[in-house]
Design brief:
- The chain is α/β, with parallel strands linked by helices.
- 31% of the residues lie in helices and 18% in strands.
- The protein is globular and about 55 Å long.
- The protein binds S-adenosylmethionine (SAM).
- The site of S-adenosylmethionine has 25 residues, from helix 6, strand 8 and strand 10.
Length: 268
């Protein structure tokens, strides 16, 4: 019996993708090894995969031969589909009887607008389910050997978006919490946000890291201090997508790295 068969037996079958349903699934940060089995079942059965720019090509390659891939994200300067356009498209595809896999990078409910899409589907009466994914904040930290929590170091982790409509966001309460801050979508605002964190009282020498293209062959890790973060990222041409993490957990990396084994690929 294969592991897939054993799993199906324990769950009374593989989840069946019904015609006219939408599965709103997370694809993880990049490495297809981080897909959930339910996302994989969705890829195998979907008629249409509506995906964002950050869904890794290696994940899309796992779609079944019957599946049509539809891009619904931002791409190099071209006007991107609005959220309303995407939701309408999902509803139209489902109503035409397709099995629609809406695939998003990371987790669909973490800075991914999955909540809005689910609300629209619910309002339209389109049956849907949510399949969580490994969010980039956690995937990138693990890939860089930075523990998200460590006993005696921190007892909370703050996930925050570094880009949004509220440019005057007050960072001071987050700094006062004294817990590590994991930032998404921050590369274009790094200088401004690092300055805001410093002026809110975070020490200049606080360890900081930026992990770009985490879990992909292009992954790059920069380890520095809050004070140097923006300048170092610029000097090293660190490009989005990247996760930035600021806090003492970053300093634990050197202690974890000793025997950390690279993920060797092959037949076990
Ligand atoms: C629109 S948000 C989507 C987040 C996604 N829903 C999640 O849970 O990871 C996009 C941001 O996620 C982060 N991100 C996504 N994939 C990444 C990767 N492979 N490496 C580093 N950061 C990544 C970056 O901060 C990027 O700007």
């Amino acid at each position: 019996m294969t592991a897939w068969d054993a799993l199906a037996a324990r769950r009374a079958g593989v989840p069946v993708f019904a015609a006219g349903h939408v599965w709103l699934a997370g694809a993880g940060p990049g490495d297809p090894g981080l897909l959930t089995l339910d996302a994989l079942a969705g890829l195998a059965q979907a008629d249409v995969v509506v995906h964002d720019a950050l869904v890794d090509a290696r994940v899309l390659a796992l779609a079944g031969p019957q599946a049509r891939l539809e891009f619904a994200g931002k791409r190099g300067g071209k006007p991107s589909a609005t959220q309303a356009d995407i939701s309408e498209r999902l509803i139209a595809l489902a109503r035409s009887g397709r099995r629609v896999l809406r695939l998003k990078g990371g987790d669909p409910f973490v800075f991914g607008r999955g909540g809005e899409e689910a609300m629209t589907l619910a309002e339209a009466g389109v049956p849907y389910r949510i399949i969580p994914g490994v969010t980039a904040g956690l995937g990138a930290l693990a890939a860089a050997a930075i523990p998200a929590t460590l006993r005696g170091v921190n007892r909370a982790v703050i996930f925050a978006a570094g880009h949004g409509a509220d440019e005057d966001f007050d960072w001071a309460p987050l700094v006062r919490a004294g817990q590590p801050i994991v930032l998404y979508m921050v590369m274009h605002n790094l200088e401004r946000i690092a300055a805001a964190l410093l002026s809110a009282g975070l020490a200049a020498q606080t360890p900081a890291a930026a992990i770009a293209s985490a879990t992909t062959p292009q992954q790059r890790v920069l380890v520095t201090t809050l004070e140097r973060l923006a300048a170092d990222a610029r000097e090293q041409n660190l490009e989005p997508p990247a996760i930035v993490v600021i806090g003492e957990i970053v300093a634990m990396r050197s202690r974890l790295l000793g025997a950390a084994a690279p993920a060797e690929k092959g037949t076990p």
